[in-house]
Design a protein that fits this description.
The protein is mostly beta strands. The chain contains 1 helix and 6 strands. A 3-stranded antiparallel β-sheet has the order 2-1-6, with no helix packed on it. The mean pLDDT is 93.
Length: 65
């Protein structure tokens, strides 16, 4: 999903599940809008996790707005 698409559907603070580097899945919330890196990968900041995480590893938990 592109960053612009994510931002249209989901607002900051939205509950998500994220697959971390170690394979574990945790529940958290978004803490930024998504953006695209120079090479085009969409990332987002999440509560309790440092840095940007790929949207490929983030799943929204509820129905979009």
């Amino acid at each position: 999903m592109k960053a612009s698409e994510w931002n249209e559907w989901y607002e900051i603070g939205y509950p998500v599940l994220v697959k971390k580097d170690d394979g574990s899945v945790v529940q958290t919330k978004t803490r930024s809008e998504a953006w695209e890196l120079g090479h085009g990968q969409a990332v987002i900041k999440l509560e309790g996790i440092s840095g940007g995480y790929s949207l490929d590893r983030v799943q929204a938990m509820e129905t979009h707005k």
